UniProtKB/TrEMBL annotation:
One protein family per Pfam: Wzz
CC annotations in GO: plasma membrane
Polysaccharide chain length determinant N-terminal domain ranges (all copies): 3-94
Organism domain of life: Bacteria
Name under which the protein is recorded: Capsular biosynthesis protein
GO molecular function terms attached to this record: protein tyrosine kinase activity
Organism, as annotated: Bacillus timonensis
Length: 246
């Protein structure tokens, strides 16, 4: 037999386990917030732009083939920048021991002669130093490596007055935790409801036996009934005593 769940049952299940959903969501958001604000190290980003272009010539117009060649070379330059031939010199100049390959990202826009070197570091000043040093070393070394002199620094990296970390983003992390917490809470609520096979109401009996309920036994509070009987007995005894006294 195929079971169907109505919207009413869904809302009833959510309302019944609302405390569980709220608790899981609150714990998830609070945990992610605490970790993001107090335990994760802020990471800062700095970028420098370099232009791939031939040196000025006596020609009064731009040579399209030279531009096309420069654009094609950018893919090669992207790989060269992250090789030990460049990064080892950067580390030596800055007296660094940490690997730089994972800190540096090189990219360029489509059909553009501008390359962007982006560095992420926990120290904003060091991020700027690595980006600028990498650009300078690459500009100097590419002459020897590729036997061309077509690289110039277009926009060096600078430290802003109030550096803002690019990650972690506590508000975004907490928003994600809110969604995940709600999904986990609702999922757990329906799982508990599905695993709960106890019979609690007349509707449960009708659904299980597929028979109409003809009658139900009301729940009797023994303590309340005992108290009422005791008070009733005292009242009768008091009335009898008053009658005898008269």
């Amino acid at each position: 037999m195929e079971e169907t769940i109505s919207l009413k049952e869904i809302f009833q299940t959510i309302r019944k386990r609302l405390w569980l959903i709220v608790m899981i969501t609150a714990v998830a958001v609070a945990t992610v917030g605490v970790v993001s604000f107090f335990f994760l190290t802020p990471v800062y980003q700095s970028s420098t732009q370099i232009l791939v272009n031939q040196k000025a010539s006596d020609q009064p117009y731009l040579n399209q083939s030279d531009i096309r060649t420069n654009i094609d070379l950018i893919n090669t330059y992207n790989e060269i920048i992250k090789t030990p031939a460049i990064l080892d010199l950067v580390k030596k100049e800055l007296n660094l021991t940490e690997p730089l390959g994972d800190l540096i990202t090189v990219g360029s826009s489509n059909n553009s002669q501008v390359m962007k070197i982006t560095v992420e570091h926990t120290d904003p000043q060091m991020a700027v130093d690595i980006a600028n040093t990498t650009a300078n070393v690459f500009k100097n070394e590419i002459v020897t490596i590729m036997n061309v002199d077509n690289v110039s620094i277009l926009s060096p990296a600078v430290v802003p007055e109030n550096p803002v970390p690019v990650k972690p983003n506590p508000m975004l992390n907490m928003a994600i935790a809110l969604v995940v917490g709600l999904m986990a809470g609702v999922g757990l609520a329906f799982l508990l409801e599905y695993l709960d096979n106890t019979i609690k109401t007349e509707q449960d009996i009708e659904k299980l036996l597929e028979l109409p309920v003809l009658g139900a036994i009301a729940q009797i509070d023994l303590e309340e009934e005992t108290r009422k009987a005791s008070e009733s007995g005292k009242s009768r005894n008091k009335g009898r005593g008053d009658s005898l006294g008269a």
